[in-house]
UniProtKB/TrEMBL annotation:
<dbReference type="InterPro" id="IPR011989">
    <property type="entry name" value="ARM-like"/>
</dbReference>
<dbReference type="InterPro" id="IPR016024">
    <property type="entry name" value="ARM-type_fold"/>
</dbReference>
<protein>
    <recommendedName>
        <fullName>RPTOR independent companion of MTOR, complex 2 a</fullName>
    </recommendedName>
</protein>
<dbReference type="GO" id="GO:0031932">
    <property type="term" value="C:TORC2 complex"/>
</dbReference>
<dbReference type="GO" id="GO:0043539">
    <property type="term" value="F:protein serine/threonine kinase activator activity"/>
</dbReference>
<dbReference type="InterPro" id="IPR029453">
    <property type="entry name" value="Rictor_IV"/>
</dbReference>
<feature type="compositionally biased region" description="Polar residues">
    <location>
        <begin position="1050"/>
        <end position="1063"/>
    </location>
</feature>
<feature type="domain" description="Rapamycin-insensitive companion of mTOR N-terminal">
    <location>
        <begin position="31"/>
        <end position="415"/>
    </location>
</feature>
<dbReference type="Pfam" id="PF14666">
    <property type="entry name" value="RICTOR_M"/>
</dbReference>
<dbReference type="InterPro" id="IPR029452">
    <property type="entry name" value="RICTOR_V"/>
</dbReference>
<dbReference type="Pfam" id="PF14664">
    <property type="entry name" value="RICTOR_N"/>
</dbReference>
<feature type="domain" description="Rapamycin-insensitive companion of mTOR middle">
    <location>
        <begin position="439"/>
        <end position="658"/>
    </location>
</feature>
<dbReference type="InterPro" id="IPR028268">
    <property type="entry name" value="Pianissimo_fam"/>
</dbReference>
<dbReference type="InterPro" id="IPR029451">
    <property type="entry name" value="RICTOR_M"/>
</dbReference>
<feature type="region of interest" description="Disordered">
    <location>
        <begin position="1015"/>
        <end position="1063"/>
    </location>
</feature>
<dbReference type="GO" id="GO:0038203">
    <property type="term" value="P:TORC2 signaling"/>
</dbReference>
<dbReference type="InterPro" id="IPR029259">
    <property type="entry name" value="RICTOR_phospho"/>
</dbReference>
Amino acid sequence: PLLLTRPPSDNMREILQNVAKAHGVSNMRKLGHLNNFVKLLNSVDHHEQKFGFSYEEIIICLRLALLNEVKEVRAAGLRALRYLIRDRGVLQKVLQLQVDYLISRCLDIQQSNEVEQTQALRLLTRIIAVDAALFPSSVTNSLVAVGNNGLHEHEKDHVVLACNAILCELAVKNPELVAGRGGLSTLLKNVLDCQHSRINEALISTVLHLLNHPQTRQYVRADVELEQILAPYTDFHYRHNPDTTEAQLKTDREARFSSSKMAIVAAFRSWSGIINLCKVGNSGIQSLIGLLCIPNMEIRKALLEVLYEIFRLPVPMVTADFEEALHSIDPSRPQDGWRLGDGFVAAEAKVLLPHRARSRPDLLDNYLALILSTLISFGLLEGLVEVVTSSDDVLSVRATVLLGELLHTASSLLPHSHSHHLHCLPTLINMAASFDISPEKHALMMNLRDSQILNHKQNLEWNWVLISTVLKWPNSNLRNFRDEQVHKFVRRLLYFYKPSSKLYCVLELEHPKAPQLTLAGCQLINFLLDSEDDGQVYLEDLVKDIVQWLSSFSGLKSERSLQSNGLLNTLSQHYFLFLGALSGQPSGVKAMEKCGAFQCLLNLCSMKNQDSLLKLTVSTLDYSRDGLARIILSKILTAGSDNCRLYATKHLRVLLRANVEFFSNWGIELLVTQLPDHSKAVSMEALDILDEACEEKANLHALIHMKPALTHLGDKGLLLLLRFLSIPKGFSYLNERGYVSQQLEKWHREYNLKYVDMVEELMNEALTTYRKPVDGDNYVRRSNQRTDRTLSSVLWLNANFLMSTFQNVVPDLSYTVRSPVLDTWEGIKQLKAALWALGNIGSSNWGVNLLQEENIIPDIITLAQSCEVLSIRGVCIYVLGVISRTRQGSEVLKVLGWDSVRHGRRQQWPIVEEMETRLPGELSSIPSTLSLNSESNSSQRESESESQPSDSVQFPRLCSSFPGLYFVDDEVDGVERCEDVSVCVRSKPVKDRSPFTILSSSRLVRNRFLNSLPLPSMKPRSVSDPKHPAGGKKSPEELQPGTIRRNRTLTEPSTGCVHNTSPAPSHPLYPGRVHHIHKHFHQPQSLYSDGMYQV
């Protein structure tokens, strides 16, 4: 045992003597002394004087341990060396004594020496951490050899992966050494050997990182080495390993497709990958897309999967049924987390209802637009049409779904000058239906008789499809049809639905006919409401019965009682749906008040341990009118249990996104009352909802008027305070309290650089499948969390802060852009910070004027086109996208050859403005003053003949069909988009993309139950059909005077191919009819930062 009370020199002498002895000391004792050596190093400072020996003497003794015949002793010797190497001087002495050759010997994977290999690999990571420039080439050769041949030794896969990880780290810190020893080729070879997405991503990202900067780009031959990842697709006879047998060929080919797909997708998440793979001319991606026209079903199937991944789209199930394929990717299909016992309506609405953001920039749209336009110019759409028309049914369906998604994305994100030809493709699917329903009375009576409801009382054997048809019949109610048979029809339905009858309410939620029965019940409520006085008696009879049933819960004391009463697993919970339908109509509210329904619900609010009852109450009532429903909601928000208060608070987000009328008058007040809640989860949820609510100026004004206390809520509360700066009233409020000057100083000191890190971190996280470790978790796990909304919030807040406080920093920022320092990463970061600041300042008309005065926009464009650091080009494109948010910014950029989208992201059928080209005199002849001839740039040009992208590889020329790229215009209301309102175009009323009208606010909420109710599929009308609900309704436009000549709407695509990608909340319920939305395309979003995942 080691006695730390002894002098360190005595302990060191004893340890080294025993380790160096060739005889007389057992291997177990040597192992113990080596472990004591580590303990001794950890207990004293590293000084030769304390040890009593020089580092050379210590290393010589430890070196003998690496020659021991026992692997455990050798492993302990490697461990001792790792703890000894603390600085560059010790490392140099280790290498001078040629210990690196012994380390290489330990990496031999042909031996059974796992413990030794592990310690050797740990020692190598320490050497890289101390000084990668001193990393020995002998060990590099061993790492490359293991990486090239080790994967054939399946039991050693973990060692091979560790060697590849060390090669990646070394390539980032010492690329010259790795490239000189063939390490980059090894990494690319292993990319196609690896089916683990995380590892594959790390390998290819290392190569992409080297391609990003001119100083390291010379080590990679992008046109040869990088395009290896395309080989499994472009080479029909590709064999990764020559010894692969014919029997193994199919399995091996599928594995290579998987690896190649991961690498291609990762490359498209980086600017260096996009630029090098999409170069004008014989680019690899152009060859890849061209393969769609070759009738090879295996290649086509694999390429479609790649395209789905690139555009972040859900892949449909393998089926030849188009309807089934669409349903498999419908984001509104029921999920486990939407059940009553889980997140319920609040969780469903958060996923399906679109965020209220209107003015925040969205860099994901810029990224998608760039990728889409580039691939379209390479013939992507034509290739997909070929797949649709010349493949089997399964591939044809999958290609059709992808084509519809891309056409819709193109119409939304691409400028008209680059998308006007997209909808000229042949019509591939024409799904239109024309239902000729006669409203005559005899036809109604025929359906009534055929429903069997008048013939017998076997309720479940009735024809519920015809019953729904009768209830939805145009103008059908008891006032218009006073036939006794109709009254008998209603009485039998009422008896079936009454809780006292024990018929409907005892059926299980999973009953096959449960969806139809619930829909028919909601339609019956609307039928009776439309019948006015004639249906009031029946309506009150049903409501009284439901109230009596609700009163039975007053004696319940726990959720077990609810279970025994059947509420959690029977259709009885759908009675709250009926009450919700009643609360949406004045006559229904009158009936509920008369029968005591509201009082009964208020009594339920006072009960404890009845969370399910309160969740049902909150989720189904209509809050569009001031009345008892809002009182019930307010009581649950303040008097319920922690879980109930949290759910009720979450439901306020549902009401916000559902656009309930006058939410700013009462909803903001309810949210503010939740901020001081003793439950942190409730207060933070309310804060998050307020942050989203402030996207609307009316809500922001209401919040500022209430002057809430936010500073105690941490950083998120401070960020919400920053929103106050976007309007004069809020700016004055904060300026009076000294908040503005405090934040201004903080921005100058640290936030400008921290902002770059935040944006890049969020963009990387948004584009990858993984997240960084949090809360002390050192393992990076798979995550489906979306961070793009957080990113847009960061961009928006910084823009408002800069616009409100910065007027004198533009010259300094412009100087940084015009004189970039690209030799160091610190200089690159300073340049990015300046670019983001200028972009955020230029996101308003006032800011654009400042940029024009400084004439900095042409310099930003020059960087976007020709900067040798490729990630800077990407930042410039994002920055130009932020500048294009206003009409003035769009026009300035149009003059400079860059197009932008001039409509908001929520305009489903935008107006295309054809404007006469106006060339401002002050811009038409202004050249860029930017000089990129820095030392690092000029020194590399001579040596980068093949490795550096050619001059034609500039973003405006990535797609050869147009002179400039584009960036997505973020949605800003007409008044916000430009100060001169006269040049704005008033858009037409938004048309629905599907034949279903967008649901009104509160009715949307109570239809949570209808989400899982499958109805018989019905072919929707084409939007071009004059009978379509949205067709033929064009309101006249009032054009403001200016240079606009005329307006034109984009051609609407077939509804069978493309549907609204804004998530539909739930299935709309209308008075008299219910539609089931069974086709819904989902459009995920993504973005990217600086061209490289941090390795």
